Amino acid sequence: MLVDMHLHENTFSSDAKHGLKEIVEAAKARGLDAICITDHDSMGLKDFAEQYSKEVNFPIFVGVEFFSLQGDITAFGIDSIPEERVDAQTFIDYVLQQGGVCFSCHPFRNNNRGLEENLKSVKGLTGIEVLNGSTSQAANKRAFEYCTELRLMPIGASDAHDLEQVGKYVTWLPNMVYNLNDFIAEIKKGISKPAVWEDDGYTVVD
Asked: Distance between CA atoms of 129 and 131, rounded to whole angstroms?
């Protein structure tokens, strides 16, 4: 399956331009099998997204992009987020205790929101965004190098805040899943590949 693992929706991410219906339509147009909504420090869309997913028969998995004291981490499988910013290791431990998974997003983007060298000191990350649609090629390349060195799961994600970005980079997973629990179980198998949209289809990056 092909899933965009990092998207923002305008109800709870103030810098996003579009609503869930438009995002789903854009994802379908690019041939995606599922999307993830990871709003900034909010899981407020969760109930609505779960209901809408059933209505349109299209998997929508809601996680969060949490701004830890060391940088942004996307997480899935938690019921809520800490009430205040905490350090990256505390947040990772919090996610793991609930059976969830978490990824370092855009770790080397030049905006002081990536984990950067902290990638080598934190424990328990599931993977790293090696392709992020809002990040330079040089920063993505560095993320890929760290992901390989640390033997973590490589993923692709658009980090889209508008429709044109949806599906720019995505993640290939070997099996189709339809709910969040199965999505997390599939991720925990550790078999993924980033993929790139090119004109009329996706190219998986080995």
From this structure: 5
